[in-house]
Design brief:
Layout (H helix, E strand, L loop, with lengths): L1 E2 L4 H5 L10 E4 L5 E3 L4 E3 L5 E4 L6 E8 L2 E5 L3 E5 L3
Antiparallel strand pairs: 1-4, 2-3, 2-8, 4-5, 5-6, 6-7
Length: about 80
């Protein structure tokens, strides 16, 4: 397990903004934190970010050949700075 900063490279392949500095709210426990504070798992078939407070899955990113599959179901919201 690593911290959410390890996600920067993979997330930059999909998003035009730096996502690890974005803030979000866990849909499981309501904790608010920067994406970089999440616990990152990179040995899975893709990238998995889990809430540091309750272990809820916040984000899943899988590179599937010619496309990316992104799941943000574990986040109530995410705030991106302009």
């Amino acid at each position: 397990m690593l911290d959410g900063n390890v996600a920067a490279g993979k997330l930059s392949e999909v998003f035009a903004v730096e996502l690890t500095s974005a803030r979000g709210r866990c849909a499981g426990c309501g904790a608010e934190a920067q994406v970089a504070e999440a616990r990152a798992f990179v040995e899975a078939p893709g990238l998995v970010l889990r809430c540091a407070s309750c272990d809820n899955v916040l984000l899943v990113l899988v590179h599937a050949g010619d496309r990316y599959v992104l799941g943000l179901g574990g986040m109530a919201w995410i705030e991106l700075r302009a």
